Amino acid sequence: MSDAIPGEVLVMGAGTIGCFIGGSLAAAGVPVTFVGRPRVLDKLARHGLTLTDLDGARHKLAAPTLRLCEQVPVGARPALVLLCVKSGATAEAARELAFALPAGTTVVSLQNGISNCAAAGQAGPSLNIRAGMVPYNVAEIDDGAFHRGTPGRLAAEDDSALRDWLPVFERAGVPLDLHADLLPVQWGKLLLNLNNPVNALSGLPLRDELMQRGYRRCFAALIDETLGVLRTGGIVPAQVAAVPARRLPGLLRLPDWLFRIVAARMLRIDAKARSSMADDLALGRRTEIDALSGEVVRLAQEHGLSAPRNARMVALLEAWPQQPKRWTARELQDSLGL
């Protein structure tokens, strides 16, 4: 593998993840085009792009240096596309990419859930679409300012078109690992993402929510239910967190004082971190609950099972815009039958 930059990158979906990863690559010298909604692009055009993380890194990209577009530019020929739109926009984004870009263009889906890569492939069959996984939390902490609040390494399906990018991602501070089979990694990440709806309903920063045993019991119950469904489906989730998936529920149920000690690595989260689902609720946007708990419910149904607690979380998040409220830990436990 060479240290040379293999070509240009197009970020399809300039949200928190797209801006952070695309911005990190741009700060490392990669030509990056950001395609997004006017709401985000206008802020970037005014304030530029500021990237920070829990390790103390900081990058500032001035507004005039950013290439910002509301649609895929005519004649674009990116060597790599990072698909970072919300799950509900996957098919539309893939169709736009397939229409505008040459056949065979490599696209990595850096989206939550399990099914987005397949949905993108169906909508844009001429593209070389590969599944990916983002392990960390990124929050928009100010206009044009994005902060990575938790650790981790990106993952994607192995593909020859991606191997020359590995040193580039490493230098940019967003290291990427390739896997022959990404499905266990995706399910390992989804298990962790089951805290997103708990965090969103709590109304608390991520670390504050995880420091309350009642909320952790809700998170543990969702993981337990999902692990049971995965066993029936013959799926063994990869270890994405500091501890194996099978140990997470017991760890989460520990008393607060003991959890702080035992889960020190898991709690390497700074005070700025919050779930993107919480941001979606705050802005009145549709959440990605269907790509998280909804995936569990569908897998259970495929095997003649039910997943009532994950189904309940889907219902709560979908009902929230009509009845917005901050759920206490006790209320949420009662709603899940704990």
Brief sketch in words of this structure:
Its EC number is 1.1.1.169. The protein is α/β, with parallel strands linked by helices and 338 residues long.
Summarize this structure as a short list of keywords or feature phrases.
338 residues; alpha/beta; 8-stranded mixed beta sheet; 4-stranded mixed beta sheet; 16 helices; 12 strands; globular; NAD(P)-bd_dom_sf
Could you explain how this protein is built, in words?
With 338 residues, the protein is α/β, with parallel strands linked by helices. The protein is built from 16 helices and 12 strands. The protein has helices at 16-27, 38-47, 90-100, 116-123, 160-163, 166-171, 183-193, 195-202, 206-210, 213-232, 248-252, 256-262, 276-282, 293-302, 308-319, 329-335, and strands at 9-12, 32-35, 49-53, 58-61, 67-69, 80-83, 106-109, 128-133, 138-142, 145-148, 154-157, 176-179. The chain has an 8-stranded mixed β-sheet, sandwiched between helices. Strands 4-3-10-9 form a 4-stranded mixed β-sheet, with helices on one face. The longest helix is centred in the middle third of the chain and has 20 residues, at 213-232. The protein is globular and about 55 Å long. The relative contact order is 0.12.
